[in-house]
Specification:
heterodimer; A: 152 residues; mainly alpha; 2 domains; 8 helices; 64% helix; B: 209 residues; 9 helices; 61% helix
Amino acid sequence: MSVLFRHALDLAWSDGRLSKRGAILLENFQEILELSDSQRSVVEEKHHLQVIPHLIPRGLGSGASTLDQWMTSLIDLEDELPRHLVSMGRQSLETGISKQAWIEVFAAAERMECGFEFARGVWEPEFEVEILVWPEALDPIAKSLGLLLEEE
Amino acid sequence: MFIDEPVEDEDDVDPFEALNVSTTAPAARGASLLDALGEEDDDEDDSSEDDGEVIATLEMGGMMEMDEEIVESVIPLNETGLNEEEEDVDPFEELGAVRPNVIESTNTNVSDALAAFMDEDEYQGPENTIVFEGEGATEDEPIEQEEEIQVEAEKPRAQPEELYRYLLEGVWVDDVLDPAEVALMARKRRDLGISFETHLKILKQVLHD
């Protein structure tokens, strides 16, 4: 949940400013994830305190376009999303998944209606999983699971 | 013969004797009186075995200077036997309580315990059960047995999830989940008959607690 919305905030503020379009896209994404205002405020307040003060304004909110593209590619995954999440769950188990990572990603997967699949990838060793290369849209998930370094 | 030397004179009259007064020292008289009294007690102990007479003596003599009621309240008059030896006085009897048959019960317990050790299957002696006030052992026995059966029947239902929850908590102790732990938990799910959905439910509880 917070993994995906946090990434959306990062993209919307990527040039140091939030445009009106970026704000509207964030509203839309909140609805897609079915986040309550209080849940959103927890994530957004943390972002305002920890990220925004370190941003250097260098644009007019062009991050909205990047956010729009990411949201579109994530929604387009549709049928592939469960397979990728199962695969990512299994890969994360091989490297060792932390409690915090499990909580965050499982919550995000549940928001995308793939919580059960992700859990099977992690907790069901008998369940055969095809290891896939995840799409770029799932990079925030991969980062949370420790499959992708922050710099990458 | 000296002047001071007393001279026996048959004509001399002893003034004590004349006045019919004893010349014996008071202490010596007291001792002889006590001896005489002691002899009287011994005679009574030896001769009389009737309780009533002794009590009557006490009452009439007023030696204890106590009212009859007080004496009775301490020791019932009809149960008091001064001629009985002190070893024979039964404190339980004195207090009007029933004396437990310690020797017999001990022997029974010992023999029962030995019998139980010798052959537990064949042992059919009385069980050592504690019965509290207000509880009828015979009446409640069937109910208690039913309750025990119910508890035993309920235990296996509640146990697997609790056990699984306990194990799941242990998995996160080092904060990292690895394949060996996951394999162990999968095996435990099979052994305990826990579905994957139940696993997820318990996992959420563990993580949110």
